[in-house]
Amino acid sequence: MTAKERAAKILWYPCHELILRDIVRAENCRLYDSRGNEYVDLGSGVWCTSIGHGHPRILRVIAEQSARIGHTGFNYSSEIVEESAGEILALLGFEGGGGVFLCSGSEAVEYGVRVAQSVTDRPLLMTMTDSYFGAYGSASRREQEEWFCFDWMAGARCSDSGCHEGCEHWARIPFDRIGGFVFEPGSSSGLVQFPPEKLIRSLVDVVKSNGGLIIVNEVTTGVGQTGTWFGYQHYGITPDVVALGKGIGNGYPVSLAAFSPGVMERLGGEPLKYAQSHQNDPLGAAVALEVVRVIREEGLIERCGELATLLATGLEEVKTRTDRIKEIRARGLMVAVELIDDPQASFTARVHRELVRRGFVVGRRPGVSVLRLDPSLTIDPEDIERFLKTLGDVLTESPS
């Protein structure tokens, strides 16, 4: 049996095309394969490397914390866990609240959902039909006896001054049975769509007035990607529960479910009956703390705004010049470029492969005519400019 025949068969992401199989090194937003070819990663992996691959401060923290203690048990912990949680909770305005470090965004969302379900006597949680909350649990299944899913697109272009019972869509919402609103401020299952502020504020006001909780999924929108620390800040709302993941670990698998003091009080000081082996590990907590400090100390939120303007302006120019772009949806460095395509999105797939061939890795959801960009906050402006030129060339040269 040859070495190739002995190689393990890896179960890949469903439906996603594995184009580059031999990446051997990464630095900031650059990837290098075994033949020395260079690629610009405009997707931050799976939207994870918020401050770039292999950031030297993160590598140093991983080495130093691992040398001290990386994993703790049921009966002992390390001060770095509380220090990290405290600093992140302060960013959220949750001073005096609580949190739990976990391993993935899916887990953080599910933990927050279970907490909300445990402290409300109402049977339903509400969310939008296009939300994505993870790979398992109640948040993933969204069964009718636990969830009410609202199609916000029907009122997206509503010109009314406010949401009220006179609206047929609003009137269908069973507010008397809703104990919480789980809000994803922008990703829309990868399509990057932003519900209108008026609608979200109206929903939040009613749910809160009924004693319900506001749970925000910041796994993809948090840690600076939309130009503010957290995506919910674009809506002027105050959450009770926030789930963080992806960018908070810069590629290291750590997440945080964070709770306001009010939620902690409703829990009665007792944790949720949930335990897994890497809950509140010092290593993950140390990485999350350093990511936050890097973003703050290097002014990356402000830098995101400057880069976002460069990217958005350039994309609009490409749209005008090529007549191949249907719509650009963007907030900060979270961007969707929707192309004019057939129902199978075959043109989009060809453009995606050609961009990779020319040295640019972007996201593409299978079967949808959307290219997604989520570059790290540390990307070089020159790489954005080179991408814009290349995208324009590819859209001009590629046949329909």
Task: Write a compact overview of the structure shown.
The chain contains 13 helices and 15 strands. It is α/β, with parallel strands linked by helices and 400 residues long.
Give an overview in words.
This protein is an alpha/beta fold and 400 residues long. It has two domains: 3-55 and 299-397, Aspartate Aminotransferase, domain 1; 56-297, Type I PLP-dependent aspartate aminotransferase-like (Major domain) (Aspartate Aminotransferase, domain 2, 3-Layer(aba) Sandwich). 37% of the residues lie in helices and 17% in strands. It has 13 helices and 15 strands. The protein has helices at 3-6, 44-47, 56-68, 79-92, 105-119, 137-141, 168-171, 197-209, 261-267, 282-297, 300-322, 346-357, 381-397, and strands at residues 23-27, 30-33, 38-41, 98-102, 124-128, 147-150, 178-183, 213-217, 241-244, 255-259, 325-331, 334-339, 360-361, 363-364, 370-373. Helix 3 packs antiparallel against helix 10, helix 4 (79-92) packs across helix 10 and helix 11 packs parallel to helix 13. The longest helix has 23 residues, at 300-322. The protein is globular and about 60 Å long.
CATH topology of the largest domain, what is it called?
A: Aspartate Aminotransferase, domain 2
- Fraction of residues in helix: 25-40%
Q: Tally the structural domains.
A: 2
Strand content: 15-25%
Q: Count of helices? A: 13
CATH first level of the largest domain: Alpha Beta
**What profile does the largest beta sheet have?**
7 strands, mixed
CATH architecture label of the largest domain: 3-Layer(aba) Sandwich
- Head-to-tail CA distance between termini: 45 Å
Shape estimate:
globular
> What structural category do the secondary elements indicate?
alpha/beta
What value does the Rg take, in angstroms?
22 Å
The residue ranges in which pLDDT falls below 50 over 5 or more consecutive positions are none
Q: What is the H level of CATH, i.e. the homologous superfamily of the largest domain?
A: Type I PLP-dependent aspartate aminotransferase-like (Major domain)
Order of strands across the main sheet: 4-10-9-8-7-5-6
- Overall number of strands: 15
Name the average pLDDT. 93
Write down the secondary-structure element order: HEEEHHHEHEHEHEHEEEHHHEEHEEEH
